[in-house]
Amino acid sequence: MNDVLVRNVRPLHAGAVDLLVRDGRIAEVALGVQADDAQVIDGAGRLIFPGFVDAHAHMDKTLLGLGWYVNDVPQNLRSMIDNEREMRLARGIDSHTQSSKQARLALAAGTTHIRTFVDIDTGWGLSGFEGVAQTREDFRGALDIQIVAFPQSGMLVRPGTVELMEDALRNGADVVGGLDPSTIDRDPARHLDVVFGMAERYDKDVDIHLHEPGDLGAFSVELIAERTKVLGWQGRVVISHAFSLGGVDDAHLGKLIDLLLENDIAIMSHGPSGGRPAPPVARLAAAGVRLCTGNDGIRDAWGPLNMPDMLLRTFLVAYRNNFRRDADLELALHISTYGSAQVVGAAEYGLAPGAAADFVLLPGENHLEAIIERPKERLVVKGGRVVAEGGVALV
Ligand SMILES: [Zn+2]
Could you read off the pLDDT of 180-229 as tens digits, one per residue? Predict the structure, then answer.
């Protein structure tokens, strides 16, 4: 008896329905489904969402559970990178323990898929990667975790990093990461050639952190697009943050959007804090650019203002983009679910028959109100199995 019947739940833009789950998949969505031997979950009129997808996390570096981190770090990128590196080396942060804490909180909040970056660094070799890879195993079946080999401290400027990234890619890392090719490695063409070279050798997707502002960042977008085209990697490249898309004039933005579309490059925007320029999410979506979002760092040496809840992230993306209309809030929710799922390659995602039975039930008037209210009482189902309930992961 593998059947589970979820009675009386409300999908977006639909009245109450029942969901029949068979062998981990949604078999039927209708009112009054009959399934005599099925295990019954009473949805009691709750809202149903497909499992939330965090397409940009840093699970190896969270300081969750380690006490308040006193942050007096100078607020520039290089200082924040160096501070974190020194702190991690001094304190010996265990990435398996830390990523497990974050995984439990994320799961309890309804996240069923995470793409996490993991710092690959000559200071600690592959230990960060191996710890998160262990977490990926521990949570298999409850939370899908995809790992990006990420040169947080620089790649070319720190000899030995490329070899470590290749080791990680040979040993189960899923995606090649890159970082600010001009401002960190100070050699954009070579940085990107090495990143795309690894992508080709190991047949992996690419996800590049691009904080570079204005025209400099726009130039990096062009270089990324060129390499995407040459390699035939359309549909396999994400530019994360891409602040420069909010820092160029309208005509220039139009050209960059054309490049993104021609090369099917996705943009990750997490709705950054502060006044810095950020990608105009509604404009990009209207143009047809694929969009995803993620929580970025959670309670780490970069800052404390975050928790691993994709409804909170949806709120922040909406807030940052000045979304007020229902259609815009719905766009933000779409990005946290279907948009991010598409980018991380979540198979058979959604709430239609045939989809994997990954979903979240929570109380509320409607799906948009849930972005604001964010009730902690969530029932999370992955592959037809209850994996979190009442704000607690059962894994
Ligand atoms: Zn990041």
Answer: 999 999 999 999 999 999 999 999 999 999 999 999 999 999 999 999 99
Is ipTM over 0.95? yes
pLDDT in tens, 51-81: 999 999 999 999 999 999 999 999 998 899 9
Q: How far is the CA of 129 from the centre of ligand 1 (A)?
A: 15
Distance between Cα 266 and ligand 1 center (Å): 15
Ligand 1 centroid–CA 150 distance in Å is 9
| Structural domain spans, the chain | 4-50+349-393, 52-344
**CATH number at 4-50+349-393:** 2.30.40.10
Query: Which CATH superfamily hosts domain 52-344?
Result: Metal-dependent hydrolases (3.20.20.140)
Q: Looking at beta carbons, which pairs linking 282-290 to residues 24 or more positions away fall under 8 Å?
A: 282/321, 282/323, 282/328, 282/331, 283/253, 283/257, 284/245, 284/257, 284/260, 285/331, 285/335, 287/257, 287/261, 288/261, 289/257, 289/260, 289/261, 289/265, 290/264, 290/265, 290/266, 290/339, 290/342, 290/343
Alpha carbon of 209 to ligand 1 centroid (Å): 6
Q: How far does the centroid of ligand 1 lie from the alpha carbon of residue 333, in Å?
A: 20
